[in-house]
């Protein structure tokens, strides 16, 4: 979402009421709990998740903005830099400067990147929306766009929002130029083109007001179910989660779970919780409880892979421009001070230290050992394959050490000498500071008892290249 595009308010579902006593406690807790020592991203990584943010390239030159983004988040989503109007402003002419800058920044700070978005009715150049193309031509244009943009970032992104906001509130299809010209099949065609362009990226459908069980989310559910039955390559569903204060759906977790049960990952992809301004202690406390609740909902669903906040700071949020009278939706205020909402999320993730100051630098801390369900276990063995100048190659062997088959694994370690992973294969990487989390790919997560698999990586080192200890593994 951007500041210039209207989005209707989130559907008012079950309100999470906060008592005055709870409000007072939550506001007071903002100064005593959270995750400054490790950052939210590192806390999430210890649980096999990510906590991300939308990044705007034009703000990265602001020191406080970059400092908070780099310290707190282990995943980023370009806010506007990969949308159609930015990447193909005129037919066949592609521009990647802004997107490349964000990818380069993320790689330098050990953050994974979600691409956003390949096909969307909004922020679409007029040559596409008003081109008057027939179905065959527009299909070819769409496929070419996906091939070029996803192909340009091949191997560099964790995931793509392939199609964004294709449904109306009543569950019918939005009458975008793609829908009216190509028909229902355009979404499947887009996913097929994305898989061909970047076979390793996770492919997501992304939408708003689908956080609870309603007509819109059910229509998306039925589409995903059909895609899985038809072999259309879809790997995940993104729930934007633009919410109004006190309106976290009571069935959020159940809804995430029903999608996960279809065999796809789920993620909260554009999270903010807006309030009528000015903020006060009661509103901030309710917002904190809302962030705590949505974080717990994700953590309680095994296939909920992470949460992305739609912005670093209230200072640059899209909300006030689109919803007059509303604002203050994020974890950090206009001056980059952590709000009670930061504590709400940090507490859900297990944080116990004081809130960070805007200038606080990231600091390494030992990774928390992940846990496995009863009867399932795995081990991870780290070795250095080769080393040169300031680079090295590593390999990790993951073995099923339990009596039951496992369906997935997560490996975590902390580098002792500040090493950085530069490229990884046969796994999905998240690195924040010294802490590294690697999760299985779709093809190597299932291991029978005594079976094993490996993933490898290259990295940079300086001064020393000690092996991490411990290297922990959790099975799922």
Mind sketching the topology for me?
Layout: H1 20-29, H2 39-45, E1 50-55, H3 63-72, E2 75-78, H4 84-87, H5 97-108, E3 112-120, H6 126-129, H7 135-152, E4 159-164, H8 177-182, H9 186-197, E5 202-207, H10 215-230, E6 236-239, E7 242-244, H11 252-260, E8 265-276, H12 281-299, E9 304-309, H13 319-322, E10 326-327, H14 340-348, E11 378-388, E12 391-400, E13 409-414, E14 420-425, E15 428-432, E16 435-439, E17 452-460, E18 472-475
Parallel strand pairs: 1-2, 1-9, 2-3, 3-4, 4-5, 5-6, 6-8, 7-8, 8-9
Antiparallel strand pairs: 8-10, 11-12, 12-17, 13-16, 13-18, 14-17, 15-16
What does this structure look like?
The protein is of the alpha/beta class. The protein has 2 domains: 38-348, TIM Barrel, CATH 3.20.20.80; 378-475, Immunoglobulin-like (Sandwich), CATH 2.60.40.290. Helix content is 29%, strand content 24%. The protein is built from 14 helices and 18 strands. It has helices at 20-29, 39-45, 63-72, 84-87, 97-108, 126-129, 135-152, 177-182, 186-197, 215-230, 252-260, 281-299, 319-322, 340-348, and strands at 50-55, 75-78, 112-120, 159-164, 202-207, 236-239, 242-244, 265-276, 304-309, 326-327, 378-388, 391-400, 409-414, 420-425, 428-432, 435-439, 452-460, 472-475. The strands form 3 sheets. It has an 8-stranded parallel beta barrel with strand order 1-2-3-4-5-6-8-9, surrounded by 6 helices. A 4-stranded antiparallel beta sheet has the order 11-12-17-14, with no helix packed on it. Strand 8 (265-276), helix 12 (281-299) and strand 9 form a beta-alpha-beta unit. Helix 12 runs parallel beside helix 14 (340-348). The two termini are 33 Å apart. Mean pLDDT is 88; it is low at 2-37 and 361-369.
